[in-house]
Design brief:
The strands form 2 sheets. This protein has a 5-stranded mixed β-sheet, with helices on both faces. The protein has a 5-stranded mixed β-sheet with strand order 7-6-8-5-9, sandwiched between helices. The chain has helices at about 1-15, 40-45, 65-75, 85-95, 135-140, 150-160, 175-185, 200-205, 230-235, 235-255, 260-270, 275-285, 290-300, 305-320, 325-330, 340-350, and strands at about 25-30, 55-60, 80, 95-105, 110-115, 145, 170-175, 190-195, 210, 220-225. The longest helix has 20 residues, at about 235-255. The chain has about 350 residues and is α/β, with parallel strands linked by helices. The protein folds into 2 domains: about 1-105 and about 220-350, Periplasmic binding protein-like II (D-Maltodextrin-Binding Protein, domain 2), CATH 3.40.190.10; about 110-210, 3-Layer(aba) Sandwich (D-Maltodextrin-Binding Protein, domain 2), CATH 3.40.190.10.
Length: about 350
């Protein structure tokens, strides 16, 4: 009862963030998904840190990157976090700026099977990818429940490519994550594509992970970004918002056990996901987080974030989701990476 009451209080505080003391502050509209990278601003609201910021906040959740990008195009949010694939599409189509990395999602964009799957009879069919289960013949013709045009789809395609296959060699059925978990649990499909925290639900059900972006050699970054028009009009608000966001990331990274697991569990409940504390703890095990100083290196080193985003962009090109001209535009604009915000925050933390 206490936990339910505590959660109700938390949500009441969060759902009405513009209080009398904040009415004169400019509004920054945050978008997120029910995942680790959606939690920092929510956490800042609960901790009271957001009240100290020079802006008020409005928070909107999306099931996945597709509808999130559509809302961006309609000007419905200013800053937020989503996966690499929707971040790339938003950059190409709308000039959306990639300003920071929310987390490394390579291992938590993954693929699952039931314990009796034939894929589990073979591991490392391609020695270059020793942790992928199943042979090309095992995968060929499989019915796969997946959220298409997503980071999870990228992990799926990278896995197929590692086995010498293409998307056309399997049957991909588009579903949003929660719907896919339900359908797979009811016996539909042979393979299930997920991302965290839905991956932890799959593990709890006894399903077995057969691949991931990391296992297939695809580095998948979660992107933090800003709407082009908002960033150009209010760069100081973008910087202030990112300062709050990354301060929460740093707290999670430096000491994930001090209240972080409980708060992330409550956040998942707010998003409609019932996870145990042990499941929530896996977020900190499988999802690397980065300080502003680390982000400067990752965003400015051509062999790091630019190269990883290029891999995801090539996936979209191969999928026919973007044209060669769009890919060339994306690359020519340095993948719409703007490292200036993390550079300023890193310098500020060093007292420069």
């Amino acid at each position: 009862m206490f936990k339910k009451l505590f959660l109700a209080i938390i949500l009441a505080v969060f759902l009405w963030p513009i209080t009398s003391g904040a009415q004169t502050k400019p509004l920054v509209r945050t978008s997120a998904q029910p995942a680790l990278h959606g939690e920092p601003i929510w956490r800042a609201e609960i901790s009271g840190d957001l009240a100290k910021a020079p802006f008020s906040s409005e928070f909107t959740l999306f099931a996945s990157g597709g509808p999130q990008v559509e809302a961006l195009a309609a000007g419905q949010w200013d800053v937020g976090a989503m996966g690499a694939v929707p971040t790339i599409l938003a950059g190409i189509r709308y000039g959306y700026k990639f300003i920071a990395i929310s987390n490394d999602e390579s291992e938590t964009n993954d693929l699952w099977v039931r314990p009796d799957s034939k894929l589990l009879k073979t591991k490392g069919a391609n020695p270059k990818y020793p942790d992928i289960y199943g042979s090309a013949n095992d995968w060929k013709g499989a019915k796969i429940l997946a959220t298409t045009v997503s980071t999870g789809h990228y992990a799926l395609s990278a896995t197929l490519k590692a086995l010498g296959l293409k998307d056309a060699d399997v049957s991909i059925i588009h579903m949003e994550q929660a719907q896919a978990v339900t359908a797979y649990g009811a016996g539909e499909g042979d393979i299930l594509q997920l991302w965290a925290p839905f991956s932890y639900i799959a593990e709890a059900k006894g399903w077995v992970k057969v691949s991931s972006g990391a296992r297939a050699g695809a580095i998948i970054l979660g992107g933090v970004g800003a709407r082009k028009e908002f960033a150009e009009k209010s760069p100081e608000l973008v910087l202030a918002w990112l300062d709050v966001y990354l301060a929460e990331i740093e707290r999670l990274k430096n000491d994930p056990t001090t209240g972080a697991i409980d708060l992330l569990k409550y956040f998942n409940e707010y998003c409609g996901l019932e996870l145990t504390k042990d499941q929530v703890a896996l977020e900190f095990k499988y999802r690397p987080l980065y300080t502003p100083e680390e982000q400067v290196e990752l965003l400015t080193n051509p062999a790091k974030a630019p190269a990883w985003l290029d891999g995801a962009a090539r996936f979209l090109l191969e999928q026919g989701r973007i044209s060669q001209e769009e890919y060339d535009l994306y690359k020519a604009n340095n993948y719409f990476i703007d490292p200036t915000y993390v550079q300023k925050l890193a310098a500020a933390r060093k007292g420069q």
